[in-house]
Task: inverse folding
């Protein structure tokens, strides 16, 4: 065996490249493509966590480390070309509801994330995760994603300054001629145009361009030395590592935070994994997904590690589809993406200077992408359509993913009962709806 053949042989033995009809080069290119598509989270997530009071340097470090570690775990354990990182929607629920609305310390919120990871792990071992997903009606599954998308877009519009509080109408249009607002609008249009043209990394490019323009216009501090761009001293997680408050999370209540963390991640991650594995050809003729137990176990462990590191829940990213489209079929794609996450640690100072109005367009665009699911909601049967609508609309209007869940699940059960279709409600839906009803009653 030649020196050139040796590395190929190692990767082949570990990732079964020939069986998956791929090569080392293809996997490396796919990993780079996935990283470019997902790298925006390195800028967006720290800003959201900072809004929850988490020190930004620690938020940057925890975001990068957890993304790198869990993506590598997914590649090595499940042999999936799938990247993981703190999930959009989950980070918004963490920062703006648990911390912002409920006024709980971010340490307590991290405790809730940890307990949800424990729930995932136990449910995975018992085979309950897929059973629960199958029990929830398809319309509600879809409306959950759509509602979270609207909530994320709502946060983006506020960060951009496009919508502001108003004493008479609650919300109104912001000062659209203000430079930060104009830059956000430009970033939104630029990102949208690039995505429409199929440009890889469109969201990341939009963030970069707006940041550069904000520096040029004096709206953001400009780097003054090479150390402002690159750092030999990696950002530290010291302020967040191990700071989760388990007792506080348990004392506050299971249904208010732990249950909702669990449910949101449950549907978000499973839906993403099913879609990605289908695109990667990892579903067997009998419908069984290859290594799904390993993937779900990785997700559960990753969730617990998220809390330990000091960030919101990690989840599989649909942007991994970009790498799969480039031919990525194995865990070598994920391992490549993980390595690039680690390299990003050196450029952490750049992440720190990105203003919130530069990442706002990313939130709006991601929200728009998640809205596409509304086409799959069946509104012809109003006993299905009304609960779906309430799920969607209550999330942004109450600034709470949990409230969207509550109104959707409760109204679904009640509508079926009132329309003589109670037999369509399974036991799981009765239990979940009852739990949400008790939670709303306790909150007054």
Result:
């Amino acid at each position: 065996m030649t020196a050139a053949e040796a590395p190929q042989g190692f990767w082949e033995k570990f990732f079964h490249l020939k069986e998956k009809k791929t090569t080392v080069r293809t996997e490396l290119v796919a990993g780079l493509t996935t990283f470019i598509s997902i790298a925006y989270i390195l800028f967006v997530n720290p800003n959201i966590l900072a809004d929850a009071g988490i020190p930004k340097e620690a938020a940057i470090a925890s975001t990068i480390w957890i993304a790198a570690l869990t993506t590598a775990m997914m590649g090595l354990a499940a042999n999936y070309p799938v990247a993981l990182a703190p999930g959009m929607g989950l980070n918004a629920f963490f920062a703006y509801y648990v911390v912002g609305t409920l006024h709980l310390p971010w340490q307590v919120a991290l405790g809730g994330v940890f307990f949800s990871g424990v729930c995932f792990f136990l449910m995975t071992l018992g085979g309950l995760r897929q059973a629960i997903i199958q029990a929830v009606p398809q319309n509600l599954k879809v409306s959950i994603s759509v509602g979270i998308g609207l909530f994320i877009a709502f946060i983006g519009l506020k960060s951009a300054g496009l919508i502001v509080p108003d004493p008479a109408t609650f919300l109104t249009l912001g000062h659209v001629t203000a430079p930060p607002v104009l830059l956000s609008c430009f970033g939104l249009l630029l990102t949208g145009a690039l995505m429409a043209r199929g440009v890889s990394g469109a969201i990341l490019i939009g963030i970069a361009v707006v940041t550069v323009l904000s520096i040029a216009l004096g709206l953001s501090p400009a780097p003054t030395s090479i150390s402002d761009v690159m750092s030999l001293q990696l950002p530290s997680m010291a302020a967040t590592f191990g700071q989760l408050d388990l007792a506080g999370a348990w004392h506050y209540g299971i249904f208010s935070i732990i249950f909702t963390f669990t449910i949101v991640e449950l549907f978000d991650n499973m839906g993403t994994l099913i879609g990605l594995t289908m695109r990667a050809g990892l579903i067997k003729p009998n419908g069984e997904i290859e290594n799904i137990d390993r993937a779900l176990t990785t997700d559960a462990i990753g969730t617990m590690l998220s809390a330990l590191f000091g960030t919101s829940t990690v989840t599989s990213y649909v942007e991994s589809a970009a790498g799969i489209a480039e031919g990525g079929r194995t865990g070598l794609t994920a391992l490549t993406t993980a390595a690039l996450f680690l390299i990003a640690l050196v450029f952490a100072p750049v992440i720190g200077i990105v203003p919130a109005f530069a990442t706002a367009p990313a939130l709006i665009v991601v929200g728009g992408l998640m809205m596409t699911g509304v086409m799959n909601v069946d509104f012809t049967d109003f006993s299905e359509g009304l609960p779906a609508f309430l799920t969607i609309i209550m999330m942004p209007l109450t600034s709470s993913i949990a409230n969207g869940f509550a109104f959707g699940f409760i109204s679904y059960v009640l509508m079926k009962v009132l329309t003589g279709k109670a037999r369509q409600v399974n036991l799981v839906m009765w239990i979940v709806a009852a739990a949400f009803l008790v939670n709303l009653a306790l909150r007054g």
Notes: The chain has a mean pLDDT of 86. The two ends are 72 Å apart (CA to CA). The first strand starts at residue 84 and ends at 86. DSSP finds 20 helices and four strands in the chain.
